[in-house]
Design brief:
It is a single chain. The chain is of the alpha/beta class. It has 15 helices and 24 strands. Strand 2 and strand 3 form a beta hairpin. The termini are far apart. The structure holds nicotinamide-adenine-dinucleotide (NAD). The site of nicotinamide-adenine-dinucleotide has 29 residues, from helix 7 and helix 8.
């Protein structure tokens, strides 16, 4: 582990730390607040309102009032709003990058800057799609016209987690607005500031009420939003456990929902791929430079037995070269875990791994208790090896930098192990034999499989999980149409 001790102290613009309701910045009806902590030094940055059901009600009513004129506006005009927002985000992306690094602990160079620019790209992509919300005509007798049209749903409740807060918020706001819906968004308790900053850019362009943001506690504010009778769609990204509650709440009002949930994704490496490029791809797939706080992390590493030891040796050298430290420092590769609860949770997994027979610690381990890294929630990349896919660390989503390496010999067996999980979000296959790698990719029970790379989502390609990793897709034209519109059929008698 390399440690980056310097402490970047330059200023961070905290943006508006209030609720955005009907174009106004508000303190919240209850007057209570939630403190936002900087995970790199455990100091309180500021606080945001603890929005309650009254705030949610105001926000949903504002969104409902704005819906009529927003949804009737020509789609290309809505697209132009999004394009202006994209330009404005891009022109100030560095500010957003610093803020997100400050509140989440994600390193600015490797994570929060690409995320900030990615937000502009998401708004630009969907802004250009507004004229694609098309219907179809159907064969009919000469005196009948049968066609379908796409309509927006109404008020969308969007709920996002903290791990990539502004990117995930953009991936909901931009398509929902493009399709003519209005939005009430609830950011995560631990990372509301970047989302509020993003909302402040949006609100400079959008009519009041089209986008509203209510900060608050999940079971209180989030639950009030999901259960609000005027909400016409719930779009949720977060844990599978909370996602199941969202399904139950949506059932009550027969409200459409889409869910992007957790994962425990497999990375399969063949015996022909024992080289440094694949090592980097595997580390990228594991999202070590995001402290592996990523739903798509390839956290179960299936290495062919012939290269098991040599590959792990190279991987150890590589992960130990990553610089851990101040998220705002350019040299830093890897920042911090989001909060104390998550930090303690990951440490418990590491402790258990160290105490379990037949499980070997290859590199990493528990975090330092002295020195500059002990001042924040820093954890080092940790790799365990084990002979089985059945053990707890190989099955549960840890959401931290703990990778489980498992050897395999037989192709059918590795596919069986890879698919032996209730999750089905992502998968990675590395082999020089591309045909073989693609064949394996097709057999993986996962919504998104990458071959010979471990990169992030591509805007425009549908993204979403199978099994308990979610329902529905994001990031693409088809997912915008599926998630944020309804299909109306119209039959017209043309007879005289
Ligand atoms: P979480 O489920 O605890 O919280 C997510 C959001 O839901 C937060 O805004 C939270 O306040 C809110 N929430 C919590 N309880 C709620 C309730 N009862 N009603 C309504 N809203 C409620 O998840 P987290 O810890 O913030 O994020 C980590 C999880 O998110 C991981 O499981 C990760 O895999 C998942 N995730 C999935 C994707 C994906 O695209 N599939 C992307 C990022 C994160």
């Amino acid at each position: 582990m390399q440690e980056n001790k310097s402490n970047a102290n330059s200023s961070v613009n905290l943006g508006p730390n209030q609720l955005l309701i009907n174009g106004n910045w508000e303190q919240g009806c209850g007057g209570e607040v939630i403190a936002v902590e900087c995970p790199a030094n455990k100091k309180i940055i500021c606080s945001v309102p603890r929005g309650n059901s009254e705030d949610v009600d105001k926000a949903v009513n504002a969104a409902e009032s704005a819906f009529s004129s927003w949804s009737r506006m020509p789609a290309s005009d809505r697209g132009r709003f999004l394009l202006r927002i994209a330009d404005a985000i891009e022109s100030r992306a560095e500010e957003l990058a610093r803020l997100v690094a400050h509140e989440t602990g994600n390193a600015i160079r490797t994570q929060s800057r690409p995320e900030a620019y990615g937000c502009a790209a998401i708004f630009r992509y969907f802004g250009g799609l507004s004229n694609e919300l098309k219907g179809t005509t159907y064969p009919a007798p000469d005196d009948v016209l049968c066609y379908t049209k796409r309509e927006p749903l109404g008020v969308v409740a969007a709920i996002v987690p903290w791990n990539a807060p502004v990117s995930l918020a953009s991936a909901k706001i931009a398509p929902a607005l493009c399709a003519g819906n209005t939005v009430v968004l609830k950011p995560a308790e631990d990372a509301p500031l970047g989302v509020l900053w993003l909302a402040s850019i949006c609100s400079q362009f959008l009519p009041p009420g089209v986008l509203n943001v209510v900060t608050g506690i999940g079971p209180e504010c989030g639950s009030a939003l999901v259960n609000h009778p005027k909400v016409r769609k719930v779009s949720f990204t977060g844990s599978t456990a909370v996602g199941k509650g969202i399904i139950r709440a949506a059932a009550e009002g027969v409200t459409p929902f889409s869910l992007e949930l957790g994962g425990k994704s497999p990375t399969i490496v063949f015996e022909d791929s024992d080289n440094s490029k694949v090592v980097e791809g595997v580390a990228l797939a594991m999202r070590f430079t995001r402290q592996s706080q990523s739903c798509t992390a390839g956290s179960r590493l299936f290495l062919h037995e012939k290269i098991f030891d040599s590959f792990l040796e190279k991987l150890t050298t590589y992960v130990n070269s990553l610089v851990i430290g101040d998220p705002l420092e350019e040299l830093t590769d890897t920042g911090t875990i989001i909060n104390k609860k998550q930090f303690n949770r990951v440490c418990e997994y590491i402790k258990e791994g160290k105490e379990t027979p037949n499980v070997d610690l290859i590199t990493g381990g528990l975090p330092p208790t002295t020195g500059s890294l002990s001042q924040g929630y820093f954890l080092q990349p940790t790799v365990f090896s084990c002979n089985s896919n059945d053990w707890k660390l190989a099955r549960e989503e840890i959401f931290g930098p703990v990778l489980m390496a498992i050897p395999w010999r037989d192709e059918d067996d590795v596919i069986r192990m890879a698919n032996d999980t209730h999750f089905g979000l992502a998968g990675f296959v590395f082999s020089k034999d591309t045909g073989r790698a693609i064949r394996i990719a097709h057999q993986l029970d996962a919504g998104w499989v990458q071959v010979n790379q471990g990169k992030g989502q591509s805007i425009g390609q549908p993204y979403g999980g199978f099994k308990q990793s979610g329902i529905g897709k994001e990031f693409s034209l088809d997912s915008m149409i599926d998630s944020y519109t309804r299909l109306k059929s119209v039959t017209v008698n043309l007879g005289s």
